[in-house]
Amino acid sequence: MDDEKDSKPPHRGLKKGLYVIPTLFTAANVAMGYLAVLSSIRGFQVAATDPALAASYYNSAGLAIGLAILSDTVDGRIARATRTATEIGVQFDSLADVLTFGIAPTALVYAWAIAPAFPENSPGHNLGVFLLFAYLMCGAFRLARFNLQATRPHVLIEGAVKVDKKAFVGLPIPPAGGLLAALVHFSPAPLGVYGETSGQTYAYALMALIAVLSVLMVSTIRYTSMKATGKGRQGFFLVLLIAGMAMGVWFYSKYALLLIAGTYVAHGVVWWLIRLMGRIVKPAPFN
Asked: Tens digit of pLDDT for each residue in 244-261?
């Protein structure tokens, strides 16, 4: 009996406990998505009678989605740092993302923009509903593709079979949902308060953004994963950048969150255009 006890690896109980930590952050992600949906529903109920109260509900929903992005970022980093990443953790995280960054933003945008701006069953209303559904479907497809890439190696350009940890293929759904939430946080009043003409103009512009986000999620444009940063001098500048962003969010959250989300969504497209222009203007080799 003593030999059996001695043969057990040390800190086995601690190792088991470490597996719970990433799951707790993923559960917090789910909780934020759930609260965002409830706040969106509550705001929709009072939007016609009390726009100011509705705006507070919409703002709470947007902030909940923002906090969920933080939880979603932390759980993956903790799992990698403690080497407690599991296949079920990957699946659980993706299911959480469908709720928090797929269903919650679509419910929020519908309650905040589409329903207040357009009469039910009008062409604008139906177009908005369709585009929100397309956004949700593209987000779910993007997560399914990510799961396959995370569990199976894929072939890179040079033919080496390995997982590319430096970049995501397609826009990840958290920043896509985060950009929509940041827009709501920037101006949480329902679009109906701006009048019929202005409200519908803003709603159509928002629909165009939703269509772009949907296409980016299922595209092959690469977005940095930030997983390879944090070493050496890069780590020092990364800490400064995070500290600066935290200060900006604390003092100017409406502008900072919109700027951060918009910059991340745009940077993949910018680098794709730069690489495309480089291939187009590449001089032909001399014979």
From this structure: 777 888 888 899 999 999
Q: What is the pLDDT of residue 232?
A: 57
Give the span between the Cα atoms of 40 and 163, in whole angstroms: 38
The CA R_g of the chain, rounded to the nearest whole Å, is: 22
For residue 135, give Cα distances in angstroms to 189, 217, 245: 23, 9, 28
Partners of 162 in beta bridges: 154
Cα angle 253, 132, 180; round to 5: 10
Give the CATH number of the domain where residue 23 resides. 1.20.120
Number of separate domains in the chain: 1
Residue 263 within a domain = no
Burial class of residue 18, CB neighbours in 10 A (0-12, 13-18, 19+):
middle
* Tens digit of each residue's pLDDT (9 = 90 or more) over 62-110: 999 999 998 888 777 776 666 666 777 778 888 899 999 999 999 999 9
228 in a domain, yes or no? no
Q: Give this prediction's pTM.
A: 0.84
- Residue 203 lies in domain: 2-163+170-220
192 domain-assigned: yes
| Domain membership flag for residue 181 | yes
